[in-house]
Amino acid sequence: MMKMMAPLLARGVLLLGCSSSKTQQGRPLKLSAMELKILKYFLRHEREVVTREMLLDDVWGYEEFPTTRTVDNYILSLRKKIEDNPAKPMHLLTVHTAGYKFVK
Length: 104
Hints:
Blueprint (H helix, E strand, L loop, with lengths): L7 E3 L2 E3 L4 E4 L4 E3 L2 H12 L7 H9 L7 H15 L9 E4 L3 E4 L2
Antiparallel strand pairs: 1-2, 2-3, 3-4, 5-6
């Protein structure tokens, strides 16, 4: 039996599970399964610095062997989808020499 998750609100994005996320305005937001996993991870670790290695270990797992550059590419993709201005993010922030931080 599939466990139902409570909807989460992340910066105007209503996460309903799977890839059926919507903006607050009700527009569909197409997230890949991995983008959704990453965004949920940031929501669980809001305001905490999350390193690339933490994401690789906790989101991808030990069976996969992506590079830290893979993480950067997914962050860029998420910014394009959830930020008003991806070039100047207000929510999915880079913490130089450390990793990333999500703030609502």
